[in-house]
Structures are given as structure tokens and as C-alpha cells.
Amino acid sequence: MTEPVLRTEALSKRFGGLSAVSDVAIDLRHGEVHALIGPNGAGKSTLINLLSGAATPTSGSVRFEGREIAGLAFDRVARLGIARSYQRTTVFRDFTAFENCRLAAQARLPSSMRFIRPALSYRALVEAAQRALALVGLQGSADRAASSLSHGEQRQLEIAMTLATEPKVLLLDEPLAGMGAEESRRMVTLIATLAERHAILLVEHDMDAVFSIARRLTVMVNGRVLESGAPEAIRESPAVQEAYLGGAEAAP
Amino acid sequence: MRVAIFIFGALGLALFPLVGGAFYLQLFAKIMVMAVFAMSLDLLAGYTGLVSLGHAAFFGIGAYALYLLTPEYAAANFWLSSLVAMGAAALASLVIGLLVLRASGVYFIMATLAFAQMFFYFATGSKLLGGSDGVSIDLRPDPAILGWTPFDLGNRVQFYYVALAAMLTTYALLRVVLRSLFGHTIQGIRASEQRMRALGYPVFRYRLAAFVLAGALAGLAGYLAAAQFGTVNPEFFGWQMSGTVLMMVILGGIGTLHGPILGAFALTLLQELMSELTKHWLLPMGIFIVLAVLLLPQGIGGLALARRKLQPEPADD
Q1: What is the ipTM, given to two decimal places?
Q2: 3-state secondary structure of B127
Q3: Residues forming a β-bridge with A6
Q4: Do B202 and A76 touch (CB under 8 A)?
């Protein structure tokens, strides 16, 4: 088994008296999708914020390739190779799909303090943007403003942007939210393909999708890890069935 | 089309001294210096998303720098003193930027305003800077290179061309910068700071660089304003000055480079016209600006765009 790329130990985040994430140990490995499920308010998005550096943990550690990254600035963590997508689409609405991806690719440069040479003359960035668009199937919409894309296309664009930064770890926060069946299927196939070359954490409510692509699953309830393991084990866990799958949502 | 309009405009301004009287030459030169100032503010407000209400701080620093750099009975060297004036403004904007850029939104506006007011009161109370009366610079800076004098700033026509050159150079410089990696970065920051950070951009650094570049150009404008009339007073730092230049940017079209130039001409000429017509010119002036902002949300520069908008747009989604 490969070494984990990203691993947390005893990770906790408190907001005043509220424990959003308590004592969470989770690890992501290269080449697999690790799905994170749980009811709303379980702390999934907070965990993504902690892993991506958008929030600082109250205690515990986050190790990326063996190096402690808890407390590093958000943009610093991103430059190390941990990219995230958001639950609510956050693309640059006024920019073209191409420029969204080109700007993402540009983020990989050590510095953008370059004042003279035209941005569009950096061929490597242009090609990286085109590659990322092609990967998600948006190559035909490169010159359209992001705001004119459909909801599903905007979500695809957001994934393309994270890919253009050439990350090692992808943290995807509900990438299927609000997507039609066809777009959903397409995205699931894409995530499965991406898993071959990345470590992926997938937060998702669509259980069919989760069980079809995740190699491992972690179930969170009230900020804690309830159960973690292979999909079959999770499906059969009595604790999970009682706390989550057996509740309002139908078991798969 | 845009290139044609631009060349036409530049050519018109270049030929203007052949027909324009002394009064208008001086007025236009003053406007073109203000256009440099307005473009520098637009780099912040329109392209980086940093609306500063204290941009006059750097305008004033450039102006007082010329005074301080001019020896008592001699002229300052134009090239050296203008560079030092820009450097002083850049240094001040670096220090101030390090502090105010930690705030955002309305707090940023207030912080920039507060700093400019600090300079205003300092200049008002400072003996060295002539107090509230200000100072006068008797000898215009001398642009001699090895004994050869390319132009004379004391000459109205020649100063006009120096101002025109400064405006066109600033325009060209910013055009290049906005197309560069840095230019795309700051425009991304204006669109979404959060997204840029998520992509890995250290946002603060790029904002600071934009703040310093804008400060240096504002310093150049202040320097030229001081060189034109030979007087500098605390009003150079005043919030009215910051407000006027922001109005020029908004009136002409924020987030475009030609907008601040159009705005500088429109606002100043309008001021002249209305103060000619009536003693109570501030009232019609205010009404005009309110109407302009309401009817032309993209400024005067957006007029051509608005006409194009009348044609049916391709449907969204």
C-alpha cells in the first residue's frame, strides 16, 4: 500500500463552544478516491477548510508528504499542491472559461511579478489551460464568459481550474450538487479518471456516485469520525446504518 | 475602431497648441496631469478593486518633493528630481500600503482617507513645508542633459507637450502592465480575492505592488502639477483632491484606461464652464454628476458601448 499523501491526526476545530471537527484522523492516498459522507452539519466542509488551509485547526496536525502544514496560509497550502473546489461554484464569472483556467495555471509559477511580457505569450500556461478544459470536456466553450455557461458547465470549469494548478491532492466539496443526471454521470467518470493520478477527497451526498467510485469511505457525524473503511464494510456497519444511512436517506 | 479613436484623440491634442489660446493650453496641460493622476487611481480602484479615498497623499508627496529638491537659488535637475519624487511617493505608498491593505472594503477607504488627512495636517502645521499657505518654487526644474536643454518647463507650449507625453506614456505603460501576468493577477483579485487565494496567489503581495505602482504614478502627477504652476499647498493632500480624482475615474469610466482621461477632461471643463456661468456652480455641477452616474453607469467612455448594447445580445445559457 502506498504512503498517504495527506494525513491528519487528532484534528479539531472549535468555534467558541461549538466543536465543528473533533479528533479526526483521516488519510488520502495517491490513486484513490476517499469519500467523506455524513449528514448536514457533520463538519465535512470544515474539514475541507482545515485541509486546504482556509481555516486553522484549534489542535491536531495535518501532514502533507510528511510535512506539517497546519497553520500555513491558505495560498501557501494551495501552492504546495492541495487544490479545492467549493460547494457553491466560485469561478471568475466575467472571465472566459479559458482565462479562468489560464489564471489557475499561472498560479503555479513561483511569482507573477512580471510586468512587461504579455500574459498570453506564455505558451506553457495557454497549453495547460487548454488541456484542463479538454479534460472536463469544455474545449468548445473556451471563449465563452463563465457566467454564460450552464450550472453543470460551471462546476466542470471549477474542476478544470483546480486541475490547471496541477495539484497532487483534490478536495472536492459536493461536485455533483445541482447537476442533471447526464452531467452527473459525466462528472463521476471524470473523477474516477482523475483518481488515477491524484489523491482525492470527495464530499458528496449522492450515495450512488459515492459507492461507485470511492475506494474508502469515512462517515462523519457531529464533527467526529463514526466509521472509516471500505465501501462494503461501511454499508454493513450497524452504527452507520443507524446514524445515517438508515435514517431519512434510503440505504443504497 | 478603438485604436482609431485613440490615435485621433492623441493627434488632436498634439495639434491643439496650433489653435488653442494661452489660457486653454494651460488648462489642458493641467487636465492631462490630472489624467495621469486619475489613471493611477484607476489601477487601484478599477483594476485591483481597491477604492482609495486618500490617493492625494502620494500626489502631494510628489509635489512637495519637488519643492524640497529645489535648491534655494537654483533649479532642480528635472530627470533626477522627478525620479526621486516618484521614488518618495513609492516608498510612502509601500509603508502606508503595508498598513492599510490589511483592511478591506469600507475600512480600507477610511484608512486611506485617514493617512491622507495626516499628511494634510502635517503640511498645514509644518514650517518647513510653508504651513497652510504652502510654498512656491521659483525656478522650474531644468531638464538639461550635458548642457543641452531639450525643453523648458516654464514655457507654456513646451510644458503642454511634456504633460501630453506624460499622459500618453502612463497610458501605454499601464496598457502593457495590465496585459502582463501581474495585470491579469490583479484583475483576478478584483473579481474574487477568495478564489485567487484558493488557487495559490499570495494576494496581499500583488495588492501592495499595485498600490506602490499607483502611488509612484500619483507622485509623478503631483510633481508635474507643482512644476506647472510653481506653487504647492496642503490642498494637494486634501480629501477634496482625492475625491475629485475619484470622481474623474467614475465619471469617465472605472476599469478602463481611457475612462480616467475622458473623466479628467469632462470634469475640469465642466467646472470651468459652470463657474463661468454662475457663482453657484457647485449645485448644477453636483446635479450633473448625479445624473451622469445614474444614466451612464459605465461612465462617458461607456457611451460607445451602450450604443452597441442596443443590438440584440446572444441569449444566455
Answers
A1: 0.89
A2: coil
A3: A28, A64
A4: yes
